[in-house]
Structure formats: C-alpha cells, structure tokens
Amino acid sequence: MTYTNFRTEIDADGITLVTWDMPDRSMNVFTVEVMDELDAIIDAVVADAAVKGAVITSGKETFSGGADLTMFKGLQQQYLGEVAKDPEAAMKMLFDGIGRMTGLFRKLETCGKPWVSAINGTCMGGAFEMSLACHGRVAADGEKVTMALPEVKVGLFPGAGGTQRVMRLADPQSGLEMLTTGKTLSPQKAKQMNLIHQVVPAGELIEAAKGMIKAGLKPVAPWDEKGFKLPGGPVYSAAGANLWPPAIAILRRETFGNYPAAAAIVKCAYEGLLVPFDTGLRIEQRYFTEIVRTKEAAAMIRSLFVSLQELNKGARRPADVPATKFRKIGVLGAGFMGAGIAYVTARAGIPVVLLDRDMESAEKGKAHSDSLVSDAIKKGRAKPEDKERLLSLITPTADYAALDGCDLVVEAVFEDSEVKKGTTEKAEAVLKPAAIFASNTSTIPITSLAQNSKRPKHFIGIHFFSPVDKMMLVEIIKGRKTGDKALAVAIDYVRAIKKTPIVVNDTRGFYVNRCVLRYMAEAFQMLIEGVPPAMIENVAKMAGMPVGPLALTDETAIDLAQKIMKQTIRDLGEKAVDKEQFALINALVDKHGRFGRKNGKGFYDYPPKPAKKKLWPGLKDLYPQQDPDKIDVEELKRRFLFVIALEAARVMEEGIVTDPREADVGSILAFGFAPYTGGTLSYIDGIGAKEFVKTARDLQKKYGAQFKPPKLLAQMAANGETFYERFDPYAKTEGRKAA
Question: What is the end-to-end Cα distance of the chain in Å, rounded?
C-alpha cells in the first residue's frame, strides 16, 4: 500500500522502516491525514506475519514539530459552533476528537510487535509523545537533535499520553520540571532522564534502531508489565511527601495561577500516578478537554503559534517585490546596539561591515561578538570553528568607503538627530542607488530622519531591542515616503537573522516603546501614591509581566528616561509629561546619581556578584508610604495590564499598527506582556470591549486620564466587536476598516 505522508520498506530481516516525509511541508506535523495513515501502517505491520517490528524515522532534517495546532483551533471553533445547540453532544465531540491521538499511540504501544523511534532531528510535542509510546527510542548525536514537550508555552499540555509516560519513565522531579516548563532536552539529557535508550552517531541511527528489534526488544511498555514500580516510588510515600507539596508551591510561585495548563499538568501527573495507566490516560484526556476550552489556550495558540508563524513567514511583506539575497550589510555605530546587530547578522552567515568613528571603537564592537560566541562555546552551544567563521564575516572599519556594495545599511549611532543626519549623508555618498538605509532609532520619527536622505523611499526604520542577540522581535517602521522595496528588504533581513518582524507606521515611540513607557509611568505614579516599591514589582509579576517596571527602567537606564522626558517637553510642551513623575526621575538622576544598572544604582542597588540586586531602601523615603494591607492588589494588577492595553488600542486607532497579530505578538516578544492573555489586544477581546471600557472608565475616575478609553474602544463596545473582527487580518480587502 502506498501512503501520501509515509514511505514503508521491509528489509531482509523482516523489519519495516517507516519514513515520515510529508510533501510540500518543510517539517513533518501530525494532521488528521497523518494519523489515519499511521493507523493503517500499524494495522499492516501487525497483519504481516513476516514483519518482526518497525522503525519509524523522518525523511527530513528534523523529525517532527508535533501536532499541527490548527487542528486544535479547528476543534475549538467546532465546539463553539455546536455547544449552544447541544452542549452534551458538543462536549463528546470535543472529548473524542482530543482522544484520537491518545488512542492511536496506545494502539501502537499495545499492537504486539516492537516499534522503535529513530530520532534524527528536532522531535517536539506529539511526535515525542509518539516516540515515548514506542518500545525503543534511539536518537542521533548532534546539536540539531532536540526533544521537548513544549505545549505549555502555547496554553496547552502534552495530552496524548505525555504526562503519563514521562512520569513513569523519568524521576518525578525532572519529569515535572520538563512538563511544566516545556524545557528542551539534548539527546544526552533525554537519555539521562530515561526517556530514550541510546544516543548514536547520525550515520548509525537506523541500524541501531533495527538492532534493538533484532536483539529481541519486548513489544510491551514497562507499565504494562506485572510488578512495574514508579521511578520515584508511590505518590503516598515519604519521597512523594517531599515532592508534591513543594512542586505545587513552586508552580504557584512561577505562574501566579495565570496558566491553567501548567496547573493541569501537575494534576494529571499526580492523579495519573495513583491509578492504572489507561485510567491515567483518561484523566489526562479529561483535563485536556477542559484546558482546550479556556480563553488562555485559544489566545495563546492564536498569538504564539498561528500568528507567530504567519509573521515569521513574512505575512506583511509586499508580494510583488523579489526576495533579497544579502551579500553585504553595513552597521553604523559599534556601540552595544550596533555590535549586537553585527553579531546577529554574522551569525546568519551574512558578511557585515561594522563602522565607527575610529578603528579602536570599531574593533571594540567586533570584540563584543568574540565575547558572545566564546560564551556560547563555554556553554556547549557553539564550536571553536563557529567562532572563527563568525568573526571572519565582521569587518571593522572607520572608512565610509567600505560600505560600497552593501545591500542594506543599519544605522545604530547615538539617539541624536544631528548625529544621525551626518551619518546618513556620509553613508549615502558611497551607497549604490538600490541600497536600503535603515535607522535603529527607538524614539525619533522615521519621517523626520528621512528628511536627511536623498532617497526617502529607500529609507526605513529597523528597531532592535536590547540585548539584540536574545530579543526575538524587530519593529520595522515605515516613514511617510517609505517604498515597498524598502519594506520588503527590511522584512527579508529580519527573517534572515531569524527574528520576528512587525510592521508599524511612523509615530513617536512607535508601538512597543509607547506601551513600555506607559508600563513604567504607571509604576512611577504608584510610587508617588506611596505604594511600597516591593509591592509594585511583585504585583506586576503577579499580573504576568516577566520583569517588574522598576527593574525594567533600571535596565533601560533612568537617565535615558530623563532624556526622553526632556525631548518630549521640547517637542510637545510641558503638559506632555507628568510633572510629578518628571520630578521623581530628576531627583533620582540629578540629586541621587542613580542612573540604573549601568552605574550600579537605580531603583535597585547592584552589589558585586554573586550578591543579588535589591530595591534601594531610600525609595520608601521619597513619598509617604501607604499601608500595604489596605491596598487592593487586584486593582494594581488591572492598572498595569489596562494601561498597556489601552495604549495598544490607541495605536490601532491612530493606524500606527494595522494588524492585530502584530500588536499581540509584538507585545509578548518585546516586553513580555502577560503571555497567558495572548497579547494586548487579545487581552481586551478576552474581557470583552464593553466590560473593558466600563472598568477603564472606573480606573480613569480614580487614577487619571491614562485610563481614558479611546473612541475606537467605545465604538467597539457599542457594536459588540472584537479587534480580530474589526481589523480582520485575513480579510481579502486591503486596508483597515474605518475607525
């Protein structure tokens, strides 16, 4: 029998090699068709008396990315369409649909013939769950071979037996950590955890897998054998008493109850280990049915899987512009940002010219790349030859003539309009006419900077976030005269360096910084009100933010916040900046000399390592302190999330961001806006515009104009609309609906 997604071949020893190789897909994923075909292959292996067992591997560089999450999105939509008509039938449909993969893997596990998974590359999610259901698991030794059950990162959990098999193979502490964090494992780590049996050279993978069957591999899972004992001992034991209560406390500390899927993992593991394996699978299926219906799962799947993939594939790229193959890129300014941009460019295999005012500064910028790659080598994430190759691609210089031949130049000099003007003019004097010039400005409008260019249609903003090597988002800013070619080249570049692009129209602060500044400003306002600093930081984390606003201000620098405020006053007048907040920042910088992490003194004190940073005790003396027991913690949480989401809504109203996918993905990747919400606009949609506007107006009465809902939100509340309806990113007609 022939299959669309698999090839099967029986060797002389009676072992079937099943090669998973989906046509027209760069990576294998589980779809309904794939599950149907695998089901038929299991039947064929069982039915053929000449077949002793089967080895399953991939015909691609990667093994599999797991399940196609659009299946679950479809199940969610189907359930929502049926639940009003017949709730019981809708629930059964959902439960049975979710159990399809669980049943398939259990069928493989109990078919009576041995199966071995030969893992030749990335093996994620459902694919690793399938591998765990195989009787033997062999992984190739290599940097690109990794295994994980990362579903918790998109609001789900391993619901095809993952929670039950991992906890019966690995020691319970390691298993729980892997499941609740979505942690990626190397082959060596997976073997250490007893999740795979062998790690072999890539060229020996298939033979090693077949060798397990030839050696008499039993076609029975350990938990199906009489006398099976859990690796960590019974749940109700001294060891269990030392594990489960702390595990629950740690989960609460790390998630603050914001991630239902993470809590469900612990419940599945705990309850499943108290009962026989098949009952454990049933428990897991029930919890998964519950989780897949949550708004957190729906929002996270949409933003962190579907939308993220679409943006990474260039959803906003002009289709009629040919793709750019970069031969040479210039970076102007070898400071921390410029050096980071040079590093990620060279890491992508693109030659880069790193220019600064003198060779000493340019060489110092290149040394930053040396430091980063050396650190990666120490951690085992790179090899010495990688360092040599990467550094050979970076050419430090002080001569603008070296920019000749560049396809793209990224300017990353000081945030000063005059400095940027001189840099632009010198660079354009040697660039070829078709080259694109990009500014890495974080606050200055691109349209004003483009006035320094003789070719404004080839001028664009490419805004990186610090540290460049770690931050995955890049804002691409269109000036008033920016052309389609500049936009296409910018998107091609961001994709080439394996980061996620979002496209925004020109405004002061663009999108991300406008939201971040609101987050910081609300914290300053709370300080002025006398909210204890520790409470401000902790409540922000409770709301789902990864870093407290005061710590974030320290990282970006308090004196930078002062400069931004001063520039805003110069440009827009004194009323554009809150007087009390300006006084707070001035006092910290001018009176107390507290600039942030960079000088070891900010909202926090930064003692020499290994001591940890701690809040500056003097903060509590700046303003009279409120009694923390009388402060409404839930209201503080709402203030942080609402003030950011309202700014995102204003950005949509002004047409700065036109695609809700970019607003949501951008807010999560750039500054970690509560990922469980799906992003700023999904947060509003999840609450409902009507309820959100009502709460925002209540906050406005108590705390100020920053909570005033824009007209757009008021209209949406009146019409019962969501952002994904009003600004449908999949609408065939171009442009936004009128606000």
Answer: 56
Contact 135, 217 (CB under 8 A): yes
Looking up tokens 């089967």 gives: 54
pLDDT one-digit tens code per residue, 349-387: 999 999 999 999 999 999 999 999 999 999 888 889 999
DSSP string covering 600-668, please?
A: TBSSEE-PSTTSPPEE-GGGGGTSPPPPGGGS-HHHHHHHHHHHHHHHHHHHHHTTS---HHHHHHHHH
Site of tokens 């064929």: 44
Q: Are residues 460 and 487 in contact, defined by beta-carbon separation less than 8 angstroms?
A: yes
Which residue blocks in 393-511 are alpha helix, DSSP H? 417-428, 446-450, 484-496
Please count the CA atoms within 13 angstroms of the CA of 296 that sit on its side-chain side.
22
**Which CA distances in Å does 411 have to 369, 399, 419, 437?**
18, 15, 11, 8
pLDDT of res. 416: 80
Other CB atoms closer than 10 Å to residue 81's CB: what's the count?
Answer: 10
CB 458 within 8 A of CB 489: no
| Alpha carbons within 13 A on the beta-carbon side of 406 | 29
Count CB neighbours of 576 within 10 A. Answer: 12
pLDDT in tens, 197-237: 999 999 999 999 999 999 999 999 999 999 999 998 999 99
Give the DSSP letter string of 278-320.
HHHHHHHHHHHHHHTTSHHHHHHHIIIIIIHHHHHTTTTS-TT
| Contact assessment for residue 161 and residue 281, using Cβ atoms and an 8 Å cutoff | yes
Distance CA(174)–CA(177), nearest Å, equals: 5
Active centre residues (catalytic)? 463
Spatial separation of the C-alpha atoms in residues 474 and 493, rounded to whole Å: 10
CA torsion, ordered 677, 680, 683, 688, to nearest 10 deg: -170
- Residue 503 identity: V
pLDDT at 609 (0 to 100): 87
User: Is residue 275 a contact partner of residue 283, using CB atoms and an 8 Å limit?
Assistant: yes
Residues pairing with 9 in the sheet: 17
Return mean pLDDT, the chain: 94
CA atoms within 13 A on the CB side of 146: 14
Q: Cα dist. 566→420, 559, 561, 575, 584 in Å?
A: 19, 10, 9, 12, 13
Domain 6-293, CATH 3.90.226.10 — does that match? yes
From the list 81, 19, 3, 25, the residue with the least C-alpha distance to 54 is 19
What is the C-alpha separation between 112 and 150, in angstroms, rounded? 30
Ranges for all domains in the chain classified under CATH 3.90.226.10: 6-293
Phi first, then psi, for residue 283 (nearest 5°) are -60, -45
For residue 200, the SS3 value is: strand
Q: Is the peptide bond before 187 cis (omega within 30 degrees of 0)?
A: no
Residue 9's Cβ-count burial label (10 Å; 0-12, 13-18, 19+) is exposed
Please tell me whether the peptide bond between 610 and the residue prior to it is cis, using omega within 30 degrees of 0.
yes
Residue 734 has pLDDT above 80, yes or no: no
The residues of the chain that CATH labels 1.10.1040.50 are 513-726
* pLDDT at residue 700, rounded to an integer: 98
What pLDDT sits at residue 163? 98
Taking a C-beta distance cutoff of 8 angstroms, is the pair 526, 584 a contact? no
- Alpha-carbon Rg of the chain, whole angstroms? 28
In a 13 Å sphere around the CA of 26, the CA atoms on its Cβ side amount to: 2
Q: Please, what CATH class does the domain formed by 513-726 belong to?
A: mainly alpha
Domain 329-508: CATH class, spelled out: alpha beta
The ranges of the chain annotated as CATH 3.40.50.720 are 329-508
Rounded CA-CA distance 545/492 in Å is 30
